[in-house]
Write a structure and sequence with these properties.
The structure is a single chain. By secondary structure, the protein is an alpha+beta fold. It is built from 4 helices and 4 strands. It has helices at about 10-20, 55, 60-70, 80-90, and strands at about 25, 35-40, 40-45, 75-80. A 4-stranded mixed β-sheet has the order 1-2-3-4, with helices on one face.
Length: about 100
């Protein structure tokens, strides 16, 4: 039986911010948390809560393996609204 995926405490805030800035955001959970689209670009993102014991450890083994094997674009780790803003700026939206 599969256990429920952990949801970082800051996920709602970060997803809400991204959507409020005009991004499409889909919660995909595996292999990473988010699929983010803006200005014809698509990015993968993993949310981490730096205040939780689990989040302080960064990417887990499965996520690290995915990042190492993934032949697409980078996987962005979002641990704050500032990190989310940086992602949008890289996607071509000046904040």
């Amino acid at each position: 039986m599969r256990r429920a995926a952990r949801v970082d405490a800051n996920q709602a805030e970060i997803v809400g911010y991204l959507r409020a800035q005009g991004a499409s955001v889909y919660l995909i959970q595996l292999p990473v948390d988010l699929l983010v689209g803006l200005h014809g670009k698509t990015e993968l993102a993993e949310i981490k809560d730096p205040h939780s014991r689990y989040g302080k450890h960064g990417l887990n083994r499965n996520q690290q393996s995915f990042v190492e094997l993934w032949r697409g674009g980078p996987v962005h780790v979002l641990d704050s609204l500032s990190a989310a803003q940086g992602l949008l700026e890289r996607m071509g939206r000046a904040a």
